[in-house]
Amino acid sequence: MNGEQLTAVYRNNNEEIISFLTSGGRIISYRKALLEAKEGLIEGIQIYENEDGSIYLNPSFASSFDDFPSFY
To answer: Cβ distance 29 to 45 under 8 Å?
Structure first.
């Protein structure tokens, strides 16, 4: 693998993921992670589109980000 991976999550008070910690030590927003995953810069992530057209991320090796550690 050549790209970074997402290693931890930061959630708001509603338990929504708002940012990620990468294997390279960067903190990036959900939107930035989505863009970088589309460009192939973030590995181990699948991009899905809901019926309503919303696009979201999911880890390739797990069913959700629920088991990812939190940071902050």
So the answer is: no
Which amino acid, one-letter code, is at 60?
S
Element (H, E) at 15: none
CA gap 12, 20 in Å, rounded = 12
CB under 8 Å to 31, separation ≥6 — which residues?
none
- pTM for the model stands at 0.89
Q: pLDDT of 35-50, one tens digit each?
A: 999 999 999 999 999 8
pLDDT at 1: 56
Helices then strands, each counted (H, E), the chain: 1, 5
Q: CA-to-CA distance for 43 and 37, rounded, in angstroms?
A: 7
CA 1 and chain centroid, separation = 17
Pick from 70, 45, 40, 47: nearest CA to 59: 45
